[in-house]
Design brief:
- The protein has helices spanning 12-19, 104-113, 115-141, 144-154, 156-160, 164-171, 175-187, 204-211, and strands at residues 22-27, 32-34, 39-40, 42-56, 62-68, 71-72, 85-86, 90-103, 191-193, 199-201.
- By secondary structure, the protein is an alpha+beta fold.
- Strands 1, 2, 4, 5, 6 and 8 form a 6-stranded antiparallel beta sheet that branches.
- Helix 2 (104-113) packs across helix 3 (115-141) and helix 4 (144-154) packs across helix 8 (204-211).
């Protein structure tokens, strides 16, 4: 565990406590880690890799929530004395991944006795809340142009690493909408496509102005 953040910041005795209640699972790209509303007796934490979080709409359409490269995969509640956890979304591997699984009941007992480990998991819970705040911002407040601008501004490397169809799915928009918007941003001298076919931002301030909320 000492090889992976944020656990590598813990003292040796804290690492020993967690190691005694932890198993590691390897998953390969395209493999499902958990389905929505799955009940498990362990708290899952992504140590290495990348997962896609999504829900399925009423018409069997995927509603993309985000990509996760490190962090809690399940909702954590320190008052959960039964050690059971539910998956809020479907979790699918984008690439080979390593996940730490903490025994739910034993973890709860450790958190009651160890404020340092409790603080670590509290911070990780805050990060997950921030992830879903971003989801709400992009899907309920932003229009398609603002969604694209926000993603390019904060996640350009990830955007360039995926195909157009994938990026459109991640943004919950049509590929044609994505293409039209990118062409407009190009005409407005906000971005360009380099020789490798990757997007480069040439006017970050104008890009930021598209989605910033005054």
């Amino acid at each position: 565990m000492e090889s992976y953040a944020p656990f590598n910041a813990l003292a040796k005795e804290d690492l020993m406590l967690l190691s005694q209640i932890t198993t590691f699972k390897h998953f390969v790209a395209k493999e499902m880690v958990l389905y929505e509303q799955t009940r498990v007796s362990s708290l899952f934490f992504l140590c290495k890799g990348c997962l896609k979080l999504y829900k399925v709409g009423r018409f069997d359409n995927e509603v993309f929530l985000g990509l996760l490269e490190n962090g809690l995969l399940l909702d954590f509640n320190s008052q959960n004395t039964k050690g059971e956890f539910f998956s809020f979304a479907n979790l699918e591997c984008v690439e080979d991944s390593l996940i730490a699984c903490f025994d739910g009941i034993k973890l709860t007992q450790i958190l009651e006795q160890n404020p340092r480990i409790l603080a670590l998991f509290f911070k990780e819970t805050q990060k997950k809340i921030a992830l879903f705040e971003g989801v709400i911002q992009k899907n309920l407040i932003f229009d398609s142009t603002a969604k694209i601008a926000y993603t390019l501004y904060f996640h350009l490397d990830s955007f360039n690493a995926h195909k157009k169809q994938e990026n459109a799915a991640f943004l919950n928009i049509q590929p044609e909408t994505l293409s039209r918007t990118l062409k407009k941003l190009h005409r407005d001298n906000i971005l360009l496509i380099n020789k490798q076919g990757k997007i480069e931002i040439i006017n970050p301030q104008k890009l930021h102005n598209i989605f910033k909320q005054d």
